[in-house]
Design a protein that fits this description.
The protein is an alpha/beta fold. It is built from seven helices and five strands. A five-stranded mixed β-sheet has the order 2-1-3-4-5, sandwiched between helices.
């Protein structure tokens, strides 16, 4: 048991949540779990299904949601499309979009969210793409740049949000992006 506790502590440090309370029933910080619980409960209450298209978060948003009992009533599916090829093959993102604007762009996450929604029966899709670091940043798109899109079925076009997270550690950027994506999934 001591070895397991040490491992959980190391995971917390790696995620940048050392010192934060972590529920022993979850590997994720309590603030993430509580927000995921709200996502599941509130979407379930309105009968809404959700889908995800994750890149820089690598499935963390889906992991948070599936920590919550009853999440299968809400989560239809999640795509982890880390590479540009995966974005094109799994979600139908145009090569022209990636070449013209890059994977971390409003155009790309619009296309990712639309592609996720077209491939399932969900009512809303959220897409995330960003630069978690420590490499990959530029003057135009520094480490911590994350772009989000939410597409609600029946809407004329998706909504988008561009963020620059001050927390420049890889785990910190991914954690903040996960929290933001969860907020976008609230009805």
């Amino acid at each position: 048991m001591k070895r397991i506790m040490k491992g959980i502590s190391e995971i917390g440090k790696a995620m940048g949540v050392a010192g934060e309370e972590v529920d022993m029933d979850s590997l994720l910080p309590n603030d993430v779990i509580e927000l995921a619980r709200r996502v599941v409960e509130e979407n379930k209450a309105v009968g809404r299904k959700i889908a995800l298209a994750e890149s820089c978060t690598g499935g963390l948003v889906a992991a948070a949601i599936t920590e919550i009992p009853g999440s299968s009533a809400v989560l239809d599916r999640s795509y982890v499309t880390y590479s540009n090829e995966a974005k094109m093959e799994c979600l139908g993102v145009s090569k022209d979009i990636i070449e013209a604007f890059g994977a971390v762009s409003v155009a790309c996450v619009y296309s990712m969210a639309q592609g996720a929604l077209e491939r399932c029966d969900a009512d809303v899709a959220v897409a995330i793409s960003g630069i978690a670091g420590p490499d990959g940043g530029s003057e135009e798109k520094p480490v911590g740049t994350v772009v989000f899109s939410r597409f609600v079925r029946g809407a004329e076009e998706p909504e988008a949000e561009h963020r620059l997270f001050e927390e420049n550690s890889r785990s910190g950027v991914r954690l903040q992006a996960t929290l933001c994506a969860l907020e976008l999934l609230l009805p």
